[in-house]
Design goal:
Helices cover 36% and strands 16% of the residues. With 346 residues, the chain is of the alpha/beta class. A six-stranded mixed sheet has the order 8-7-6-9-5-10. Strands 2-1-3-11-4 form a five-stranded mixed sheet, sandwiched between helices.
Amino acid sequence: MARPALDLSVVLSINERTKPLLEGRVEAHGLRLIPTGVHPSEMFWRQLKYQEFDVSEMSMSSLIIANSRGDRTWAGLPIFTTREFFHTRALVRVDAGIEKPADLKGKRVGVPEYQQTAAVWSRWALQHEFGVKPSDIEWFMERTPEVSHGGATGFTAPPGVTVNRIPQSTNIGEMLMKSELDATLIYLTDKNLVDRSRIDLIGSGKVRRLFPDQLAEGQRLFKKTGIYPINHCVVVRRKLLEQHPWIALNLYKAFVAAKDMGTAQMMSSMEPYLATGAIGAGVTAKAGSDALGAGFKAAIDADPLAYGFKASKKVLDTIVASNHEQGLVKDPVKLEELFWPSTLDL
């Protein structure tokens, strides 16, 4: 007699790699997934503070910080649902005298949350590519302690770094429009319970991108470093895995199947290949891999969004080291302690 499926509550952001799971088009063997789609800003806060769901995406940086402080609630699976060259998101006021990244020194710069992974990766690029250290900037953080990753993990500003709290009566967008900020590292306007900014800054004419050609800058960094920054991994309640260790690999297989299903819809999956330069700009999938040749197929097979611990170890080592370098964790975290043991060979 077959044993009944184990119910798991799952919360994910909505993209081509997660939709098949959220929509029930992919199932996990032996499990009945009860899915919810939530914006990442809200998802991470809710999971870190309330532990509402059995399975979720999680901010890599916040997982590292929580583990460094003895919080072992969550075990990671090497499933990386989002990657991006986050430093290319930076926005600057056109009248702030910021023509290049080095001009951020001494400036007032907004950030939704100082410890969020996108901000850690952005500061990594600024420091190692352009010589701008976190302490060179005066930071202004939008999220409050009540609704933030840091509020749940005990965030305090790293030594030597000035981090101001933006009053709840305003936000990054409004402060930029009023010249109370010179730039913002990340700008989030999606409606959720955490982020407050809503203004279309680019449309205002007062703000422009620090990197006008975001694609070219991302490709440059990838060619030089081989790093395609990971933002989220998937986590599972550790107590569940201790009771049912088989959950880890069954979930992994389901997420891989969902990603493969999304990749099969080529036109919705081109961005990572263009972002890393694996496929040249202007190439589309309309002609199909046969018409575009073996080079196109080889680029697709390289998979810049690969799941698995081994394929992403260099990137994971870098985000762990960056959290320590930037003073977000006192002692370096052992990478192998973040992920469930049976997934380390993947």
